[in-house]
Design goal:
mainly alpha, Amino acid/polyamine transporter I
Length: 602
């Protein structure tokens, strides 16, 4: 069998073996157990596809908007917007109480799940499953390696590195970690890298792999709900349970992107103040920045992945490299060079101890976790539906091993170097008497460092451009993916849907900034943790779906099992086609009825 899809995609089945009404995962029976139909006559399964035939398109170009998904997701988001605008104090109080509950009673789930994700996805990469290709066996990648890495990195955490590149190490250096000494470089860098390297990219890799495998290997829709087919079957994935998963995906994405928009607005405003372009920018300036960024990312989204996001991502990477190289050269170069191996070594040495931190680990640890580890895990999880879907979309033709190792290790290496350059420079300058930490405001620290170095005004302007373009890239990806989620996996969604989610994201960012008042950053962190909580459980189940799906890949089946797999996949196709045909028939029937009623009334 030269191609996985030869004799898998289009199969005709004898009428002696009628299909079940409840369709389980390919290669399984209706209840999801391994497929062992004793009445199946494999000789009567007739292949009608060529050996090199690709799977059916994973999208319907004429797909209609899923009104149920859009309605309920938009209703929840609008309810939050209305609540925050009408009664910001009540909204803030509720959010704080909900955060206390999550941290106290649910925080341990975040902590354990984060490390489970890392070890699971690395095991998949190093196992036999790593040889599976995300596409046909002889398929090759759509994007070259440089553009691929630039796009996944820019979408995944570009703006976060800009915001926290100085603030994160400086905060842990000055204030320490509960139970640890302050002004300790090892603690500062090991904790920073714990939050920004393997853990976030493991989360993205899990979601991305699940979607890419189902979409490009099996020809399913590019929806997170479709990734759960190995666990819940096609009927449930396309029914209310699948719609609930897609609604939660959009909900988490809106809030995660809104938090990023809020962070970007805060830091751009700080940059305007630092460069003396605007004196003490207030709420009005924040709203203006959000509005301008919103218009820009919607324009970028309309131009498509191959144009807007790809070009912006490449531009971001080049400009970020220039800024980092500038700080490396004019800053404490030798200190930075020594920081890279030392920081990574401390991270590996303290990995398991940091992974085991809970609210009971030390006095004050509960509040520290809420503002740091739990926030980051929630932030990455809230971003995972759109980042995972996006990196799946740009990773067709990669092997599972290549996908996982590049998605996890390349951004990790870049993050280590980035924090060593900016965090190492900031800590060194602070220890030499400069005021980098200031009053502890996170958004100010990057510009304090840049102004402490030569050409501070110019480098600050470059940083503001990077903040804007990094966010535009991320929000562009998010609005595009939310459109896909809203339109049954259609890769290029209707512009109205893209605009809808882009506007709602901006509204949420405004509400979070207004309700947070002087502590806007805390407001952004609080709501992100709450919004991401249900998604932790979904990603844990997604790990099971990945294992089950890869275990039944035709690469690991004998000839009879491959043919049984083909039968199940064929039934899945017919179920989807029947559902779409039934929906089209109902639309035609309704249209004819309306025409008849109009004619009768005349």
């Amino acid at each position: 069998m030269s191609g996985v899809y030869g004799r898998v995609v289009c199969m005709s089945v004898s009428e002696e073996n009628p299909q079940s009404d409840d369709i389980g995962p390919p290669g399984t029976d209706t209840d999801g157990a391994p497929f062992t139909d004793p009445g199946l006559n494999l000789e009567k399964i007739s292949p009608v596809a060529t050996e090199d035939m690709l799977p059916p398109p994973a999208e319907d170009e004429n797909a209609k908007v899923d009104k149920a998904v859009v309605f309920f997701a938009a209703l929840i988001v609008l309810a939050v917007v209305a609540w925050g605008l009408i009664s910001p104090d009540n909204f803030s109080t509720f959010a704080d109480n909900a955060l206390d509950f999550v941290v106290t009673d649910f925080g341990w789930v975040y902590i354990i799940a984060g490390s489970v994700f890392v070890f699971f996805i690395l095991w998949v990469a190093l196992s036999k499953f790593g040889n599976v290709r995300l596409g046909q066996d002889n398929e090759r990648p759509e994007f070259n390696a440089a553009s691929w890495i630039a796009m996944l990195f820019a979408a995944g955490m570009g703006i976060g590195l800009m915001f926290y590149g100085v603030a994160e190490p400086m905060n842990f250096y000055r204030n320490g970690v509960p139970g640890e000494a302050s002004e300790s470089n090892p603690v500062a860098f090991s904790t920073t890298l714990f939050h920004w390297t393997l853990h976030p990219w493991a989360i993205y890799a899990i979601v991305g792999l699940a979607i890419a495998y189902g979409t490009f290997r099996l020809g399913r829709k590019q929806l997170l709900s479709s990734a759960f087919i190995p666990l819940i079957g096609v009927r449930r994935a396309e029914g209310w349970l699948g719609k609930l998963i897609d609604v939660l995906s959009i909900f988490a994405t809106v809030f995660g992107t809104a938090a990023s928009l809020g962070l970007g607005a805060l830091q751009i405003a700080s940059g305007l103040n630092a460069t003396d372009l605007v004196h003490d920018p207030g709420t009005g300036w924040l709203l203006l920045i959000i509005g301008v960024l919103g218009v820009c990312y919607l324009i970028s989204a309309f131009s498509g992945v191959s144009k807007g996001i790809q070009y912006l991502s490449n531009f971001n990477m080049v400009l970020a490299a220039i800024l980092a190289f500038f700080v490396l050269i004019v800053g404490p170069t030798v200190v930075i060079a020594n920081t890279v191996p030392t920081a990574f070594g401390n991270y590996l040495q303290e990995f398991f101890g940091m992974a085991a931190r809970t609210a009971d680990s030390a006095p004050g640890m509960d509040e520290w976790l809420a503002s740091n580890t739990l926030f980051y895990w929630a932030w990455w999880i809230s971003w995972s539906p759109f980042v995972g879907t996006f990196i799946a979309r740009i990773s067709r033709g990669r092997t599972v091993r290549e996908f996982i190792l590049v998605v996890m290790l390349v951004p990790t290496a870049v993050s280590v170097v980035w924090f060593a350059i900016f965090g190492g420079s900031a800590i060194h300058q602070e220890s030499e008497g400069s005021e980098i930490y200031g009053d502890g405001t996170a958004e100010n620290m990057l510009f304090s460092l840049l102004h402490d170095l030569p050409l501070g005004t110019i480098s600050s302007m470059v940083a503001m451009v990077l903040l804007a373009t990094f966010f535009i890239t991320s929000a562009d990806s998010a609005s595009t993916v939310m459109g896909t989620m809203s339109q049954n996996g259609k890769l290029v969604a209707d512009r109205k849907i893209t605009v809808l989610w882009g506007l709602l994201t901006a509204l949420i960012a405004v509400v979070l900034l207004l309700s947070g008042g002087d502590d806007a950053l805390n407001s952004l962190q609080t709501v992100t943790i709450i919004a991401a909580s249900p998604f932790v459980i979904l990603i844990l189940f997604l790990c099971l779906a990945i294992y089950r799906g890869l275990s039944q890949d035709p690469m690991f089946l004998d000839e009879k099992q491959k043919r049984a797999f083909a039968l199940r996949l064929g039934r899945e196709r017919r179920h989807q086609e029947t559902a779409e045909a039934r929906a089209a028939r109902e639309r035609r029937r309704s249209k004819r009825g309306a025409t008849a009623d109009k004619a009768e009334s005349q």
